[in-house]
Amino acid sequence: MSQQRHRTAPAEYTFDDLAVVMGTYNEADAIGTVLSDIESVTDGKADVVCVDGSSDRTPEIARDHGATVIEQEPQGYGVAVREAVLTPDRPVVVTTDCDDTYPMERLPEFLDEINDGADVVSGDRLYHGAEEMPAMNRLGNELFALAGSVLMGKRAHDMTTGMRAYRREIVQKIRWTENTGLSAELLMRPLMRGYDVREIPIEYDERKGETKLDPFSGGAEIAGSIVRVAVEERLR
Ligand SMILES: Nc1nc2c(ncn2[C@@H]2O[C@H](COP(=O)(O)OP(=O)(O)O)[C@@H](O)[C@H]2O)c(=O)[nH]1
Ligand SMILES: [Mg+2]
After folding, report:
1. Segment 126-170, tens digit of pLDDT
2. Is 219 in the pocket of ligand 1 (CB under 6 A)?
3. Hey, which of 138, 212, 221, 222 would you mutate to test ligand 1's pocket, going by the most ligand atoms within 8 Å of its Cβ?
4. Is residue 2 part of a domain?
5. How far apart are CA 65 and CA 48, in angstroms?
6. Which of 42, 110, 155, 217 has the smallest number of Cβ neighbours within 10 A?
7. What is the pTM of this model?
8. Residue 46: left (phi > 0), alpha (psi -120 to 50), or beta?
9. Is there a domain that residue 191 lies in?
């Protein structure tokens, strides 16, 4: 699904050029593992940014691991993650959830794809079956991918994954409008503007701690975002 129209000159980025960012909302059960994994995989070189709305020990644990913690009243996934992706000044920005579901050991491959010329690299959880994902979420995500692909006229296999790498210039250039649907928006706008967007299969683990997203109201919000963003991008 890549197009070369906006292709950027290749550069060899290393972990010194990488920021890993996340929204964190009462993730004390998981954040230590996530940040340790990032540290060991990137040799402590990645810059880590947590936009935090917690009332538990999450921000203390994050600071102990050397992360930059930005405090923000909890206002939803997208409000936190938008702030998180716009904060670092490193040229490659990776998003993740802070719930120990995403494979931080795959960070080198995400960076390799960027170095190969990708503008956005998206971790496709559904490729391997996502058996640890709640069945409702899995069905919803399959439907989002099908409907989203039809609306965009371009195939995407997992629209709402939390693990992606972006060239910073792209997240800076585009105006982001969605909250719960931000993850879909972060894939759709670059894809529909002809950037080199690639999906790579990833493993997806069982969540530690409680989900912050209600599957019904959250799912409806995401569906609304997918339709709105697709229409906006087609009319652009
Ligand atoms: N700061 C902040 N983080 C949030 C908020 N809502 C969700 N998050 C974080 O965003 C990530 C995704 O949420 P999660 O509950 O894992 O959603 P799920 O993967 O769809 O179950 C997690 O790291 C949450 O802690 C919020 O309102 N504020
Ligand atoms: Mg999650």
Report:
1. 999 999 999 999 999 999 999 999 999 999 999 999 999 999 999
2. no
3. 212
4. no
5. 9
6. 217
7. 0.95
8. beta
9. yes
